[in-house]
Amino acid sequence: MPSQLPLDLPHAASLARDDLVVSPSNRLAIEAVDSWPHWRHSVLLIVGPPGAGKTHLANVWAERAGARTAEPGGLVARLAEPGFRIVVDDLDRSRLSETDLFSLVNAARLGAGSVLATSRTPPAGMAFVLSDLRSRLCAATVAELGAPDDDLLAGVLVKLFADRQLDIAPRMVRYLAERMERSLDSARRVVAAVDREALASKERISTRLLKRVLDRESEAVRHQAVVPARYPVATED
After folding, report:
1. 146: which of 25, 77, 106, 210 fits an S-S bond (Cβ 3.0–4.6 Å)?
2. Would you identify the CATH topology of the domain 150-226?
3. pLDDT per position as a tens digit, 131-145
4. Quick one: which of 45, 54, 197 has its CA closest to 136?
5. Is 139 helix (H, G, I), strand (E, B) or coil?
6. Which residues have a Cβ under 8 Å from the Cβ of 154 and sit 6 or more positions away?
């Protein structure tokens, strides 16, 4: 079958509140984000595995609260703003110093502002030297995200295909959801690969096409496991 070279055009997925797919695996975390500014604690920590949707929730809150992302070197000025609202993504791997993190969390605890942080690790498991920082984080509100359940994964797949203006039958969505890696990052990669494959082969989206894409994804994962990367691979949460 003739094929064409698909152009790798940029595609930005929407991180708006209306694009959140709600399921039992993320409902409590979404409710916690939506309850701002009436938080019981001024620091909310969203904990979950890679690809669980932490960054999406952080973006939703940043849009709602008018929050800014904490950056090394500019944090002191942010803390001087009355009622500051700050996002710290990947707190457990942050480029901020422990002293800066403690100043931020402590200032929010004292009522000076609000902080939403994301992490792969619960507070008690974070390898911080400052015990006061760890204790402040342990006292924060923690909302945990589990691995995507069937409803969430299927809903995200439908949304991602719709974002690319691709029609896909519900049974095809189920076919993918039952066979792919259970993460939202994987859903993004698979949908992008299906889009490229359908364009290159000029085929309608079918079980045969989906199987080719999934086989390639599995082979790529196996290859990465066997051949270590020369440089760390950044993963979006």
Report:
1. 25
2. Helicase, Ruva Protein; domain 3 (1.10.8)
3. 999 999 999 999 999
4. 45
5. coil
6. 173, 174, 177
pLDDT tens digits, residue range 44-89? 999 998 878 898 899 999 999 999 998 877 776 778 788 999 999 9
Prediction pTM value: 0.73
* Parts of the chain belonging to CATH 3.40.50.300: 26-144
* CA 137/CA 4 separation, integer angstroms: 52
* Stretch 206-232: mean pLDDT: 74
CB-based contact 222:171 (threshold 8 Å): no
Mark out the alpha helices in the chain (DSSP H runs): 27-34, 54-65, 75-79, 98-109, 131-138, 150-163, 170-179, 184-201, 207-226
